[in-house]
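Working notes for the structural subgroup meeting. M.R. asked for a predicted model of this chain before we commit to crystallization trials. I am recording the input and output together here so anyone reviewing the notebook later can reproduce the run.

Input as submitted:
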Amino acid sequence: MNPVDAIRSVWSQYASFKGRARRSEYWWWALFSTLLIYGPFIILGLLTDGQGIEAFPVAVQVVLSLIFMIILIGLLIPGLAVTVRRLHDSDRSGWLYLINFIPYVGWIVVFIFMLLPGTRGPNTHGPDPKGIDHGIFE
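Returned structure, recorded in token form:
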């Protein structure tokens, strides 16, 4: 799946927690959302010689902060949904996302789950997102 298709797929399933998501869909979305979140900070740092948002008047700081919060809120639900669908791809429950809240190690476990390949063929969460039915003996 190419980056544009992956991002389009996540947006088209904005709040869908059912089904499965391929690794490429998840990782292209992760890259897109990371760039969308951290990109403005990098640009701000370059434009203000490292001073960041403090270089602007308070009114501009408030507007920039509101825009940033809107971006974060807009990315929250589709990011959560694609992560749950990615867990479903390896026939795991979406509730395993809550492992992220275990201090220090939770995110590592979920990160490893995101790296693992999905189950081949259909599983309890739906058909193979690659569109391949491998049969029982392959």
